[in-house]
Amino acid sequence: MLGASFGEDGGLDLGLAYFKSGAVKEANETFTLLLKSIPANTPEHTRVAALIGLSRYSMGENSSAIPYLIRSGPAGGGRSARLQLGEALIHIATVVNHADIRVEAV
Q: Which residue ranges make up each domain of the chain?
């Protein structure tokens, strides 16, 4: 699970602590820095990308959350992760004008 302390400074644990306490901006910053230090195409990279997507979504940054949520989609988690991704994308689609959404590789 996500209890592992990724990074030398325990960045994952720190980011999760921020997120759980409601300090979502700090969590996003921590996860974003952590992602840069994790090799792509690893389960850890996928998990941190999902957390960035969820933190950006929680901050109302819907269009910047989409690439991270898509990257962490079905291959990045179980049924619960797929449901969270689907719910987030449905909500974003109802709130944001589709023409304003541009999904770019991250």
A: 11-100
